[in-house]
Amino acid sequence: MCNGSEGEPGTFKDRALLRANPYQLVEGVIIAAFAIGADEAYICLKSGFTREIALVTSAVQDFQSAGICTDCTVNIVAGPDEYLFGEEKAMLEVIEGKPPLPRWFPPYVHGLFAAEPQEGWEAGPHGGVVRTTDEPNPTLVNNVETLSNVPHILARGADWFRSMGTDESPGTIVATVVGDVIAPDVGEVEMGTPLRAVIDAVGSGVRPGRCVKAVFSGVANPVVSAAQLDVPVSYEGFAGIDSGMGSAGFIVYDDTACMVDAAYRLSRFLAIESCGQCLPCKLGSGAITEHLERIETGAGSDADIEAIGQWLERVADGNRCYLAVEERDLVSSVLRAFPEEFVDHIEQQRCPQTDERPIPKLLDLVGGCATYDESYWRKRPDWTYDPE
Ligand code: SF4
Q: How far apart are CA 310 and CA 280, in angstroms?
């Protein structure tokens, strides 16, 4: 299974790779299928990625007509726009024709078209789903970037790949830099490059006279403060500052940005996208978002901070997937890193900053120009949209 359902705010690397060279992905998928003896592979893309779907479909057809992948069927699955489609346990469900609601068990335990019902709640031996095997069918899942690396590593050797990057994070990473930068873009950098240099090299840096206040690596990790900008872009580098590199999609906020507003909008994204299978996640992320909105709009008090703290302790209870942890870690990190901004909002009963930043849910990123999904603000917690 190839995860190409890119939905992390501030990330465009998979679509950039697919646009640049869909053949390297298809080749990587075929090699991976060959390596594990799979005769069936699935490349999952959002149905809105029409350009990328056309490119990958054409590449698969070219491979097949060249007789290169006759012993493996490569299927392309066009799925929903929801964030959770990119969660691998939810992606299994989508391939099986169901909504993107994460299962309990990971794909390597309970894979595609496996026979046993998840937890016994699906009546009958096959739960009404067409199953092709009575085995657990452990399923290999990698994303577009990982699989696109495979043909090059096989062709040039592991030593070549390891000659770049760090010991623990070898090779390169395709980084996205958006937000308060001169020219948002996608670029491949060597692992271990300082974040500050990545922002300058890929996003052309912040605007003249401005400085970086904070960086979020998508919505999945604690905020990176200005004092941490020299962190190496690597797995161990970000772990060393108690954050995470995520998919190397960096959302930059300069010194004119409001961190309460940022926390509110990113929390709202997670609250909307939470599927509701775990009540602490859906109720907690929704409640945290409401309290953040009260503080941001000047209606907040210390009671809101207290309520946020209480929900942060519970929001990830019994979570099936990582989204609830993202909510907990992201919001608590902003509270820790920028406490004075929350105090200012409550004392002044207003937001000291006037500029608002949209959620960087990227529809396109071309030539230094990022297009965000403006309709997203109308999305409701039940995944329907307010009419315009
Ligand atoms: S943790 Fe949240 S998003 Fe994940 S399955 Fe549970 S309710 Fe859904």
A: 11
The preferred substitution site among 98, 277, 311 for testing ligand 1, maximizing ligand atoms within 8 Å of CB, is: 277
Q: Which domains does the chain have, with CATH numbers?
A: 2-151 (3.40.50.11540), 259-357 (1.20.1440.230)
Interval 254-282: pLDDT, tens: 999 999 999 999 999 999 999 999 999 99
Whether 103 is in the pocket of ligand 1, judged by its Cβ within 6 Å, is no
> The whole model's pTM is what?
0.94
Q: From atom 5 of ligand 1, which residue's Cα is the shortest distance away?
A: 320
β 212-217/224-225 pair status: antiparallel
Of all protein residues, the one whose alpha carbon is nearest to atom 3 of ligand 1 is: 274
Distance CA 312, CA 318 (A): 13
Question: What is the position in ligand 1's atom list of the atom closest to the CA of 90?
Answer: 5
The residue type of 201 is A
